[in-house]
Structure formats: structure tokens, C-alpha cells
Amino acid sequence: MIAATAELLTVAQADLTQPEIYQRVVENGSLNLSFWANIALAGLSILLFVYMGRNVTDSRAQLIFVSTLMVPLVSISSYLGLASGLTISFLEMPSGHALAGEAVLTMWGRYLTWALSTPMILLALGLLAGSNLTKLFTAIVMDIGMCITGLAAALTTSSYALRWFWYLISCAFFVAVLYVLLVEWPEDAEVAGTTEIFSTLKTLTVVLWFGYPIFWALGAEGFAVIGVATTSWAYSLLDIGAKYAFAYLLLRWVAAHEGTIGDLTTSRTGSAAAVDD
Ligand code: RET
Q1: pTM metric for this prediction
Q2: Which whole number is the average pLDDT over 172-192?
Q3: In Å, how far are 61, 111, 132, 202, 249 from 263, measured between CA atoms?
Q4: In terms of Cα–Cα distance, which of 81, 140, 108 is closest to 216?
Q5: Mutation to probe ligand 1, out of 108, 114, 205, 240 (largest number of atoms < 8 A from CB)
């Protein structure tokens, strides 16, 4: 079944027009549903999060709300791009790749929009932990580096080896993000008094984020052991946990503990505290 799915999303020639790509997406019910399920969830999340944040007055807590709200806002745009065929291309794989010579459906819009959504997740997490600006900046720029080099890996069609070279660079950026998440911010969260919620969200984030490079490697972009629609579902399900469940847990906590976040404003980021340690 998986092989059949992969075949459906592979064509002999790479130069399909946008209406033709859209047609392929519509014809593959499973792939299409993996997009629309997320569009629906993102829409509901936006409404829910706006409602949850209606009484928040502290400006740092509001900043956490806005950055978290951006996650489903980016997501709905991202999935609309995929569902409409705008951010999908059929790319001819280089020799060495399992599907060499065939044009494989590549959802490059995902990697592009991750460069916008994942920094928002990290901004919210860093603010929750009471991070200083240096660590916040480091985590965010390393994360953007990870997404853009992941995009480069998916779009490179000249050489199979170079695709994996990009992948390795992306992993190196990922290690830097993990360092901030696992080593630096837990210490800050302890000082800030947000350890409990921070460690829950940190674990959720780290575990789910590991899924993305794993499915990249297993999917059509990498070793092609699983089909395009299956990979898309894997990303869509990871997204549900890493974005909507994450955001819901965070915002529920922030709405109930505005005071804790407010205290952070004066004690940690009031002046130079934001930039030194
Ligand atoms: C890629 C491939 C190259 C190696 C690595 C990757 C990591 C991606 C991650 C994505 C997280 C996305 C989320 C999106 C939510 O909107 C680019 C797959 C390390 C960690 C959380």
C-alpha cells in the first residue's frame, strides 16, 4: 500500500503546472486529508487561543500569547500553501537516490514555514524560562538555520551526497537548539520558578522534534522507505503535538499564572539583566 502511495506521487517529468500538482493532491485522498485536518485544527486553535488570552494584561504574558498564537496562524497558511499546490514541487531525484530519475512530490513549503513557526515556539519557551537575550537569540537563529538548511537538503537535485551534506548541517544546527533547550533554559526556569511547566513542555518539544529529522530520512526526501502520503501524515501528526497540544498547555498555564510571568519582567528582563547573565 505504501509503495502504491509512493508511486501515485511520483511522475516521469518534473515540470508540472500548479493546477496539475493541485490535481495530484486532490486525487490522493490521504495526502489531501493530512493537509485539511491541520487546516481545521489550526483554525479551531486560533479561536480557542484568542479566547484563552482575552483577560491577560501583563505585557510579558501577552508576548508569550502572541508568539504562541502565531504558531497556528503560520500553520494554517503553511497547510493552505500545500493544499493548493503552491508550495509543492515534483523534483527529479539525483542518481544514488532510491527513486533516482523519477520526479518525486516534495512538500518544500513545510520546511520554509517551519522557519517562521518554530522560532515562535522557542520564543514562547524562552520567555517562559526567563531566558536572557543571548540565549533566546542563539536558540532562534540556530533554529532558523536548521529549517533553511533542511529546505536546502530537500531542494538539492544535483547530487544525492550533497542532499545528505545539507541534512548533516541542519542536524548540527538542531544540536545547538537542543543544547539551549536541555542545558541552558532548565537552569533559568529554576530561577524563574517555572520549572514544572517548562520541563513538561521541554520534554514534549524535544521528543516530538526528534521525529522530524527521522521522518525526513525515512521519507521520499531521504531513503524513501516510506511513501509521500505516509510521511505527510507523520509530519501532520507530529505538528498536532508539537504545535497545538504544546500551545494549549503553555497558554493554559500562562493564563492561570500571569503573576509568575509578571514577576519575571521586573526581576530578569527589567534592564541589563536581559542581556547579561
Ligand atoms: C529537518 C531535516 C534536516 C535535519 C533536521 C530537521 C529538523 C526539523 C525539525 C522541525 C520541527 C518542526 C516543527 C514545526 C512546527 O511547526 C529539517 C527535518 C534536524 C526539528 C516543530
Answers
A1: 0.92
A2: 97
A3: 10, 36, 15, 22, 20
A4: 108
A5: 114
Q: Which atom of ligand 1 is nearest to the CA of 173?
A: 19
Confidence of residue 273 (pLDDT cuts 50, 70, 90): very low
Place of cell 542581556: 275
Q: What is the pLDDT of residues 189-238, one digit of tens each?
A: 999 999 999 999 999 999 999 999 999 999 999 999 999 999 999 999 99
d(CA 201, CA 190): 14
Nearest C-alpha to atom 17 of ligand 1 is from which residue? 150
Grid cell at residue 191: 530561577
Cβ of 110 below 6 Å from ligand 1: no
Please tell me the distance from the alpha carbon of residue 234 to that of residue 231, in angstroms, as a whole number: 5
Stated length of the chain: 277
Please measure the distance between the N-terminal and C-terminal CA atoms of the chain and give it in whole angstroms: 55
Q: What is the dihedral of CA 209, 95, 90, 114, to 10 degrees?
A: 20
Kindly state the helix (H) or strand (E) to which residue 2 belongs, with its residue range: helix 2-8
Alpha helices in 219-272, H assignment, sequence order? 228-239, 246-256, 258-267
Nearest CA residue ID for atom 11, ligand 1? 209
Order of strands, edge to edge, in the sheet holding 89-92? 10-11, 103-106, 89-92
Pick the closest to residue 255 from 45, 55, 72, 120 (CA basis): 55
Mean pLDDT within 103-126: 96
